[in-house]
Amino acid sequence: MENISNNTPRKNRALINSAIVLSLLIFSYFIFLLFYFPIQQVKVFNNQYSDSLLFTGEEKNIICDDTLASIKIKEAFLQSRLVMAKSDSISFSIDLVDSILFLEVKGVVVLESKINKIVKSRFFSSVDNEALIKYLSNPFMVNKKTATIEKEPIVFKKAPKDTIEAATQIFKPDTLVNEVICINIEFDKNLILEISQSEDKPQFQNLNYLLKKRSKNFIQVAKNSISFKEPYFTPKIIIELPKKDIKSVYRALPYKPQMALNL
Amino acid sequence: MKNEFSDIDSLPYEPESNDLIANLNIIGKKIINKLKLAWEKWLKTLTKYVFVTGTVLFVIFWIIFYGIPVFQELALSLIPETHKEYITADSKFVDKYKDKTLKNILKLQRKLDSNTPNSAYLVINTTDNSFRLLSGKRLVRKGVCSTGSYTLLQSNDDKQWIFKTPRGVKRIHGKTTYPVWKKPDWAFIEEGLPVPPANDNSRFEYGTLGDYALSIGDGYLIHGTLYQRLLGLPVTHGCVRLNDEDLKAVYNTLSIGSKVFIY
Question: What is the DSSP string of B129-180?
């Protein structure tokens, strides 16, 4: 009996130590993957978008130069916009070189908004120019959009029974709403675009939106870490626009809009 | 387990003491002291656990919500730069290639610009409730308007109407002076009135639409309003309302077939 009671704390301590070591190992593996995924994603991107038919051997060599590549990217951007102009739906283009967002309807610019701040992932300067040009030469298709505002602010109204009830139902739009506007757009070609207002934005006003957005990345990384599947890293572009322009763009865009990008 | 209050029993009992209250006071003080000590000990342990748990949780949350993007971007800085500032190719070939690309850019830009109408057209922002009258890229006039309220009206027999302004490219189908409004069914239902027969006199309203109306198809009009103070707000049933001067300018500038871009 005495032996057992003496061993119990030692056993407990060993168990605790094993748990700590295991947790540290999992944590280290997770941190390793955090570094591994983006590096591997660059390789995947280069393989996926390097098209031997698009450029000849000599062209491939010269587009390694950033100045020439930027001209080719501009060409790809205009090509994308022309493709979008053929469709009937409203689309948008982002020119990060000139810091402008265009909202376009059949190729006609209906809204031009100055981008006040740009944060671009290092991913785009790590990939090959050849792959980047191919990547940008076709419009991006939106997969999913999340925002802090409603897309269609529909107000439900039940038909009044008589004129007296109708008089009480007169619609008064709320002009004093103080909302923080942020949009998170996911594209089909592994890209996330985050548009937030350039005006002051209290950090915790949209806690639900923030938590959702942040935890999504973690969940995806964790999922891929466990399943040993393909590397997970989605490059992100963050831009800031005036509040009223974001609202106009978001409400104007159809559910699956297209986007052209100039980096 | 030692009872925290077991010492009370061992307090000296002094039967010869006349002052029972004094003794009780001493006992009371001792109990309070014991309780105080136990509370302080418990509080200390609790603080320690809260601090440790809080720190662990903070680190986990920081990694999940902020650390992941930071680590991933950091990983990308470990990749050696693939972009070169120099070109190893023949400089004549480079110049030729550059000229060819620049010429193509100009061609694409011209093609894109050709989408913008050379004649007058109207651009309406339904989120901002504003309009711009343009001719080519020249701004002719701008101002406020009123567009759809996004009200979803449901009648008692479960018919539904949504009052929103359609987006996209429209054309001017017709122009009218001193238009008469033929009230549709929803106008009566919304007011709590019985719906009259199709061509009943009560359906025709004079002066409500202002001096001019321009049809953009599907029953939607650009017209004037009696409610000038509501301009700039989303209050209409889908039509676009303008003030008298703006309406006159739009009516005189746009012709049948002119484009109206609504976003």
Answer: TEEEEEETTEEEEEEE-B-B--EEEE-TTS-EEEE-PPPEEEE--EEEES-E
